[in-house]
Amino acid sequence: QVQLVESGGGLVQAGGSLRLSCAASGRTFSRSARGWFRQAPGKERECVAGTRWSGGSVYYAYYTDSVKGRFSISRDNAKNTVYLQMTSLKPEDTAVYYCAAASASSGSPRHQSEYDYWGQGTQVTVSS
Fold this sequence. Notes:
This protein is an all-beta fold. It is built from no helices and eleven strands. Strands 2, 4, 5, 6, 9, 10 and 11 form a seven-stranded mixed β-sheet that branches. Strands 1-3-8-7 form a four-stranded antiparallel β-sheet, with no helix packed on it.
């Protein structure tokens, strides 16, 4: 019954921006880790950004080195939605981007094994 649906992918030129959204239904993920992964042809799936609550209103965010300073993850728990704002896009960012959510409230958000639910993916293509 749990569903994660990504949106916002598309074709952009290098240097452009996109914002991906991932709306979850079926349960609340306000205390669960949320993440964004991507997979390019011939490459393994990698975590580009993740976030989890550390307690109260405090949260932790992770970014892989290749996107630091360019991508930003955020979440709106009232809408059960997580976002990925991508700026200064490069051709090497081209991939299918997947949203993920964990059932547990603890754990590292950067590991694929931590997540239990996945979206269908949205294509991001960056032209040079």
